[in-house]
Write a structure and sequence with these properties.
By secondary structure, the protein is of the alpha+beta class. It contains 21 helices and 22 strands. It has a 20-stranded antiparallel β-sheet, with helices on both faces. The chain has a two-stranded antiparallel ribbon with strand order 11-19. The longest helix has 25 residues, at 2-26.
């Protein structure tokens, strides 16, 4: 009996020891995600988090994914910095295994600024950088500068002839940047305890993730203002207006960047158009199957309950102060046509509606309806027909009031009905163009590379943005600031190396489960064989 008790105690002690070690590894004191992210200036658009350990770098060694996102030169600069500084024999002991946070910040220059924030281990010595600077090192030199919060280190990296600035904030948290403007901003920044700039993942989920991506949608607008000279661009417009924060984890694939997680809506902020879809149920996406092969980018919406969506949209118009203008328009239509257009349209509205822009800068609204033959007389009643198939709305802004903000570009559109689809466009020629696409099945869904990309996406969603980089190039040339377009067009590695990107929202408990995917172009094996 005594022997049994002793064995039991030994097994219990071993179990406790293993459990303590396991959970200690899961909740490494070096992670401290919330504390570290609280020191990042809140104008950050996004934060990419990963662990500074050999396994992470080995996974991406030779991969084009990160270099195509950041640009080859910028990634090479960061890698040179890591090897000469963090991975040096003197400093590696303090920074190895710590999580690194690379945040993206808009600036007044022709470049997007990056801030690198990390922690050192508890045994970090205050003079470690000073002692390191005294060592014979031909790769870099370090000058120490006193500032308002302590010491700033000016690191000259000789191999790339660039300065990198480092400050210590508190509790062994360090921030560094190639931008003096951004490091000065970081020095002055004080966390606002009443405002969440980001929502970190739970510590256990964080520890089990290869890398994480955090997004503050409300900070997208300043970044887009810096990148685009056309401030009215509708690329990603609805997402820029969303009061929400995303926390996404990386799912590694050798030819695609895939993140998934949650977008949490800030319900104490004014609601955006996308808020309306959070109360719906996920819907299988089929409308994308009839998008033109020339699609540059698209925004697809799906609702499980069209009547509830219309009711929520009406409340959104009231809160936005638009109800009087809307009521006047609907009353005018009733007086002139005898038609209650809103309930008639809601009764026939299907589960999906989308706005599609082609490489030729055509814009279509494609709206699924329950019965096109029943909708046609309704549309004819409020329009002037130019022929048997095409008519123009007699009333301005009606699509906006029937379907919401994303359809505001169709102020007084032309329309046609193809089977059970209502098609809107700003000119008759665009409708004729889409008729050719529809009849001859010239759909993007007929293209193999698109289907390979689409296979990576969720089948059900409520909001889905898609961009094809090749088809978008003429639009980006028009809308991007010259410096950014030149980088896009002329870089050997960059965003044009990707086939496309997609961002999906799927309603979940009044928030959104979120998928983000970017897939590289297919490799031209024939061209490689020929060159060899």
């Amino acid at each position: 009996m005594k022997r049994l008790i002793v064995i039991t105690l030994i097994l219990l002690a071993a179990t406790v020891t293993i459990t303590v070690v396991y959970f200690k590894n899961l909740s490494s004191p070096g992670v401290r995600t919330s504390q570290v992210m609280g020191t990042i200036p809140d104008n950050a658009v996004a934060v990419f988090e990963f662990n500074n350990e050999k396994g992470f770098y080995d996974i991406f060694k030779g991969s084009q994914l990160l270099s195509n996102v950041t640009g080859r030169e910028k990634l090479a600069d960061l890698d040179t910095l890591r090897k000469l500084l963090l991975a040096s024999p003197s400093l590696d002991q303090f920074f190895n295994g710590q999580n690194i946070f690379i945040s993206i910040h808009p600036s007044n220059s022709n470049d997007i600024n990056l801030l690198i924030t990390t922690t050192a281990t508890a045994d970090f010595k205050n003079d470690a950088f000073t002692q390191f600077s005294k060592q014979l090192n031909q790769g870099l030199t370090i000058n120490t500068i006193r500032n308002t919060i302590g010491i700033e280190y000016d690191v000259l990296i000789k191999a790339i002839n660039k300065h990198f600035y480092i400050i210590e904030k508190e509790d062994n948290i360090f921030a560094g940047s190639f931008s003096k403007e951004l490091i000065d901003q970081s020095i002055l920044y004080r966390e606002n305890k009443n405002r969440n700039a980001f929502i970190p993942l739970p510590e256990q989920q964080n520890s089990n993730s290869l890398a994480n991506l955090y997004i503050n949608y409300e900070q997208l607008s300043p970044l887009f203002d810096q990148i685009f000279k056309n401030q009215n661009t509708d690329i990603f417009k609805s997402f820029k207006l969303l009061p929400g924060l995303a926390a996404l984890s990386l799912n590694y694939k050798n030819d695609a960047l895939m993140f998934n997680g949650f977008t949490v809506i800030q319900h104490n902020h004014p609601a955006s158009y996308l808020n309306l879809f959070a109360s719906q149920q996920p819907v299988a996406n089929h409308l994308k199957d009839i998008f033109p092969a020339t699609t540059a980018y698209s925004l697809n919406f799906a609702v499980s309950d069209p009547h509830q969506f219309s009711a929520d949209l009406a409340q959104w118009h009231i809160k936005a102060g638009l109800s009087n203008e809307k009521d006047q328009l609907l009353s005018k239509i009733k007086a002139e046509t005898g038609l209650f257009i809103k309930p008639e349209f809601e009764h026939l509205l299907g589960n999906e509606f989308a706005v599609v822009t082609t490489r030729y800068q055509e814009k279509f609204a494609i709206i699924s309806v329950k019965d096109g033959s029943k909708l046609l007389p309704v549309m004819m009643n409020i329009s002037t027909m130019t022929n048997d198939n095409i008519g123009q709305f007699n009333y301005s802004k009606l699509p906006f009031y029937l379907l919401g903000d994303a359809f505001s570009i169709f102020r007084k559109p032309y329309f046609m009905i193809l089977d059970n689809y209502l098609i809107l466009a700003t000119t008759p020629s665009e409708l004729i163009s889409y008729t050719d696409t529809y009849i001859n099945r010239k759909f993007i869904s007929k293209i193999e590379q698109y289907n390979q990309f689409d296979d990576l996406l969720a089948e059900r969603s409520n909001v889905a943005f898609f961009i094809n980089f090749k088809n978008s190039q003429p639009i980006l040339k028009r809308d991007l600031r010259d410096h950014f377009y030149d980088t896009f067009e002329n870089s050997a590695q960059g965003w044009k190396s990707f086939y496309g990107a997609a961002y999906q929202f799927t309603a979940s408990d009044k928030n959104f489960y979120t998928n983000f995917c970017m897939r590289l172009n297919n490799i031209d094996t024939a061209a490689i064989t020929k060159s060899n």
